[in-house]
Design goal:
By secondary structure, this protein is mostly helical. The protein has one domain. Helices cover 72% and strands 1% of the residues. Strands 1-2 form a two-stranded antiparallel sheet. Strand 1 and strand 2 form a beta hairpin. It is globular and about 70 Å long. The two termini are 37 Å apart. The mean pLDDT is 84.
């Protein structure tokens, strides 16, 4: 019992410091993991070989390397220019840009996509003679809205896939039913309809696009597509997906060998260390029985049916995702969902897991700080002299996200329960 209380204390301090954001979160998670191993909450061998999913780490590293090289290939900018030139009004131009942001974010790190699209948004707003605020908020929200469409769209989706044995194709068709990815695509489509009707439809100015000609490199695009295909077929040819991640990341460095040193130096190693530490922290919390206690407590407050459990987990995740980082929350809640499913007699826990992940991923657009992409977009606006008001952000992001989550929730209820 003393070990459980000590583990809980370390966990609370860890999460508190992560929320406080005054200390680098990578330092917090790694230090917390080291303390938990030192006090015996998890054996060193168990922590290194079982708690940490190295396949997730390899995929995260590799595909982030690919996204860096692809983003600098000029292809995304050329695509954005192509779409903008074929749009008739400001609203349809922005809708096309949002759709491109969403598509790319289904396979790339959404912060990278947002940063890539920010200068394009500023250029289009200037061409239309409009404020860039709607442009950048819409782009950031569109990048966030697809975090559950594919296995590699966001770390939580990858973590869920790895911890439940799902493959890339399972996100689209799973156990004889439409999977989380297809359900998310439908939810995103409804969200875009709402975004157009509530925000973009009134933007009727004609946009005269005068973008500079951009040189493109085809090999990064080929690697990008090839990496996704390799990830999809890896389980069927007996290849660990971690090897795919290492391979595509290494090839990306070879393709960009002149700038390889810069890429490796500027790579977000802190996020990688943060995820490694959180794997150990959550593994220790689960090992000492704290997550089982949490699940039992949720059941005791009256969550005693699959329908109620789905409602609670999906919308609880939406509420918390406005200020809680989605990576540790997802790792924390996966075993909780499994415990709840077992406690209420559900033979299949996937509806609860899918609902929790949808709420975590799609719910990040409720506030300007609910997702890192939002923070970057709002920061770019403020740097350019455009103050982002909470009400203005909510008018674009909140209804967009709530509609998408509501659609996914309804489809999960109808298809999976």
């Amino acid at each position: 019992m003393e070990l459980k209380w000590l583990t809980l204390a370390v966990f609370v301090v860890c999460y508190g410091l992560i929320l406080w954001r005054r200390v680098k979160i990578s330092y917090v998670s790694v230090a917390s993991a080291a303390i938990l191993v030192a006090i015996g909450a998890l054996a060193p061998r168990t922590a290194f070989f079982e708690a940490i999913d190295w396949n997730v780490i390899a995929i995260y590293w590799g595909f982030l390397m690919v996204s860096i090289v692809f983003s600098e290939s000029g292809v995304p900018t050329r695509l954005a220019s192509f779409l903008a030139r074929r749009s008739r009004t400001e609203g349809t131009t922005l809708l096309a840009l949002c759709a491109l942001s969403a598509f790319l974010s289904a396979f790339m790190e959404n912060v990278g996509v947002t940063l890539m699209m920010v200068p394009i948004g500023f250029s289009l707003a200037k061409a239309a003679g409009s404020s860039p605020t709607k442009y950048l908020i819409s782009i950031a929200c569109s990048s966030n809205i697809v975090t559950t469409v594919t296995m590699i769209a966001d770390p939580p989706a990858l973590i869920l896939a790895r911890q439940t044995g799902m493959t890339f194709s399972d996100f689209f068709w799973f156990q004889g039913k439409p999977g989380l990815g297809l359900i998310s695509v439908a939810a995103v489509a409804v969200g875009f309809v709402v975004l157009y009707l509530t925000t973009l439809r009134t933007m009727k100015k004609t946009v005269h696009v005068l973008m500079e000609k951009v040189e493109t490199q085809t090999l990064p695009a080929v690697l990008f597509v090839g990496g996704v295909i390799a990830l999809a077929i890896a389980p069927y040819i007996g290849v660990q997906i971690g090897y795919i991640g290492v391979a595509v990341g290494s090839i990306a460095l070879v393709l960009e060998w002149k700038g390889a040193k810069k890429i490796l130096t500027e790579f977000d190693w802190h996020s990688l260390a943060y995820i490694i530490g959180i794997f150990v922290v959550v593994g220790a919390v689960n090992h000492v029985g704290l997550l089982q206690d949490l699940a039992n407590g949720i059941v005791r407050i009256g969550i005693s049916s699959p329908t109620l459990a789905l409602i609670f987990l999906a919308w609880f995740a939406v509420a918390l995702s406005s200020f809680v980082d989605n990576v540790p929350f997802t790792m924390l809640m996966i075993p909780v969902c499994l415990h709840i499913a077992n406690a209420i007699g559900m033979g299949n826990a996937f509806p609860l897991l899918f609902g929790m992940l949808v709420g975590t991923g799609l719910g990040g657009n409720l506030t300007p700080v609910g997702a890192t992409a939002n923070v970057f977009a709002c920061g770019a606006l403020e740097k350019a002299g455009h103050k982002v008001r909470l009400g203005e952000f909510l008018r674009i992001g909140a209804l967009f996200s709530i509609t998408a989550v509501g659609t996914a929730h309804l489809l999960l209820q109808l298809i999976w329960l």
